[in-house]
Amino acid sequence: MGSEWSAWSTCSATCQSSPLVTPFQTRSCDYGSCLGQSSQICNFRTPCPGTLSDWTYWGDCSSTCQMGSNAPEQTRTRTCSGGSFGDSCNGATLIESKRCSERVYCPGTASTWSSWSSCSETCNNIYNLPFQIRKRLCVGYSTWDPRYLGCTNMIREETIPCNRNVGCPGIFSEWESWTMCSKTCTSDRDVAPIKRRNRQCKGDSLGVGCDGPSYEVLACNFERYCPVKTPWSTWAYVYTSTAIIDTDFVQRSRVSLLAFVFLCTHILTH
Questions:
Q1: Cα angle at 161 between 156 and 166, to 5 degrees?
Q2: Which H, E and C letters describe the chain, residue by residue?
Q3: CA-CA to 244 of 20 to 30 Å: which in 1, 8, 45, 253?
Q4: Around Cβ 71, how many Cβ atoms within 10 Å?
Q5: What is the mean predicted confidence (pLDDT) over 210-215?
């Protein structure tokens, strides 16, 4: 009867912990003259799982407030050691994270001021005082809550007065009717009678008034001369007689001494 091998022994290791250490198994021959090898490699390149460490403490939160829709996170880790051929402890999780500072508002910061705007009015009409304005924004605040505006109690606008001492011109009303002529005739070519019409300045401020005259005058009746009381000359007597009615007549006459204006003649008969 020939010799026979025994059954293979259990592998010396369930995994290969190192390329330099190869697990093996053996068998024995009953009578010492069996054909074949008495040992063989087993579990070749079977990775050995590593050993997990304990979790570390949670790290600091990535932010002290929540800026957008995603909350900040904090993490903790553990290590896998002793594994071979890239084994990572059978795929065990080596890092964990969790939310932190969730729904905590980021307050934001104030931007620099804008330049001053142009003056709101070119003049001061008293009722709406002119002003200039400048603004600044709140930047970097939480956007996850649309109701939140950030920068609590921040002054967002500033105003200063301008053109406060510049008055506004008014607007003239329609012309009133002409007045009656100051005289019905003229007695001197250099001083003619006049008539006048007015208009009112409305809506001005700070005493600026309106642009233009508030009244107009116009010469009138300057071609209508007034009668002049001129001195008369002394009476000149002329005696005549007539036989028709058998009476004597005495005729006397006088003339205006200012004949260059007009000639006046008066005849008295008796």
A1: 155
A2: CCCCECCCCCCCCCCECECCECCEEECCECCCCCCCCCEEECCCCCECCCEECCCCCCCCCCCCCECCCCCCEEEEECCEECCCCCCCCCCCCCEEEEECCCCCECEEEECCCCCCCCCCCCCECCCCCCEEEEECCEEEECCCCCCCCCCCCCCCEEEEECCCCCECCCEECCCCCCCCCCCCCECCCCCCCEEEEECCEECCCCCCCCCCCCEEEEECCCCCECCCCCCECCCEEEEEEECCCCEEEEEEEEEECCCCCCCCEEEEEC
A3: 253
A4: 19
A5: 94
Dihedral pair phi/psi, residue 259, rounded to 5°: -65, -15
CA distances from 37 to 7, 16, 29, 44, 190 (A): 12, 21, 10, 17, 156
Q: Are 57 and 83 in contact (CB under 8 A)?
A: no
Neighbour tally for 180: CB within 10 Å: 11
145-159 confidence digits (pLDDT tens): 999 989 989 999 999
- What pTM was estimated for this model as a whole? 0.49
Please name the residue that has the structure tokens 């190869």: 22
Residue 12 and residue 9: Cα distance in Å, rounded? 8
